Structure formats: C-alpha cells, structure tokens
Description:
Layout: E1 2-3, E2 8-9, E3 26-29, E4 50-53, H1 65-68, H2 70-84, H3 90-104, H4 109-121, H5 129-140, H6 145-157, H7 165-177, H8 181-193, H9 197-209, H10 213-225, H11 233-245, H12 249-258
Antiparallel strand pairs: 1-2, 3-4
Helix pairs in contact: 2-3, 3-4, 4-5, 5-6, 6-7, 7-8, 8-9, 9-10, 10-11, 11-12
Amino acid sequence: xxxxxxxxxxxxxxxxxxxxxxxxxxxxxxxxxxxxxxxxxxxxxxxxxxxxxxxxxxxxxxxxxxxxxxxxxxxxxxxxxxxxxxxxxxxxxxxxxxxxxxxxxxxxxxxxxxxxxxxxxxxxxxxxxxxxxxxxxxxxxxxxxxxxxxxxxxxxxxxxxxxxxxxxxxxxxxxxxxxxxxxxxxxxxxxxxxxxxxxxxxxxxxxxxxxxxxxxxxxxxxxxxxxxxxxxxxxxxxxxxxxxxxxxxxxxxxxxxxx
Length: 259
C-alpha cells in the first residue's frame, strides 16, 4: 500500500509516519511507449503520462484466466447487468464502471476491455482515450480478441496512441485469426489499400462468411471486377444478394445493374 503524502509504500492500512490512509499505488504509464514513468511526461516521446491501477497478474494461463477467476467473473457479470440494463441512465453506467474496475485490477481480461470501452466512449466515466488504449492493451495481451480489435482501431485512427498502421495490422491480425469478423474486414481493407488483393480477398471472405454485410458487398465487387480473384458474375450476384438482404445500399444498387 502507498502513502500519497510521504510517497512511500508500507504493509499496513495507515501511514506510520503521517497517519494518512494508504491506497493502492497507481501505475504511471506512457500511452504510446507502454512503459512505466515517474515523471509527468514520457522521456522517450514526450506524451503526457496517465495513471491507472496496477493490475494483478492472473495466476492461470491467459486462455482460461477469466473463467478461473471466479470473484472477478462474478463482478464482471454484475457490471454487465448494470451496463446493459442501464436504459441510458448515467448512474447505472457509473456502477458498471466501478465493478469493471475492481475486476480489471484482478487481471480479468473481459473487464479490462469493458473498462477501456467505457473510457473510450465516456460511458459512466469521463472520456479518456489514452487510458482506454492502455486497458485495451492489457486485455489484448491476454488474447482477448475484442480488445485486440479495439487496440488495432486505436492504432489505425491514432486515438489514445500514436497512429501506426503496422501495429494496427498486427492487432487486427491477432483478432482476425480468432474469428473476429470486424477485424477480418479491417484487415481485408488494409490489404486492399496496399494493393495486396489476394490477401484482401482472403480476409474479406472470412468476414463475409460470418455475415458481415460490407464484406459481402466487397466480395461481390471483387468477383464482378476480377480483383484478386477470377471474374465470376454468378458469384458476384450471390454476394451482392447476401449484402442486399441486410439492406446494404451499394449492394442493392449493383444488383439493379446486373438484372
């Protein structure tokens, strides 16, 4: 435990020197370099340092950490009830954030991601993209695919971290390989913009097969124009139709042209 006045750690509830109630020491982290820093600004990149609770390292493997951490999982489930039963009420979002925070400090990846999400969108807590990116990063390193996807989006858009397309691709790939359809779509788009059309087709197809409407439209477009794959009007029609059934406007327009 840490005394905020004396700046020292003690193994007690109150500081033996000044009597102040001790708190858990926060971790001062650079949102860009992801390193602990004692100063107000990172000596490597100059970014303003943010404070966050120091997470407890899970005692079991990353793949099963959440399910084995019964106390944290219980807090997470209670938080979910507040969050999704909030009906837009800020006080319910705030209760969810409190519970997510407690579970996150226990190393619970889903709670770390959820806390990051609340910070990212300002739900129940003041919006803070820097801290959101930190929590996404912690959960992403535990292989939680939703956090991996969101961290990829942070790097892609330069929100909470410095814009970095290579890191965005890295995290999209990790999530995509676990079956995250949005990550598969974003990865396909990155490859398409980089003129790696065969790789783009590969990942758009994976997303399309999971029902991602825009990816279905893209597959129709690729077959229609012979981009990254041989031209096939029947396949183009099939994928345009799947996207159109979900109300995707561009696909509806393309179907009209083919009829």
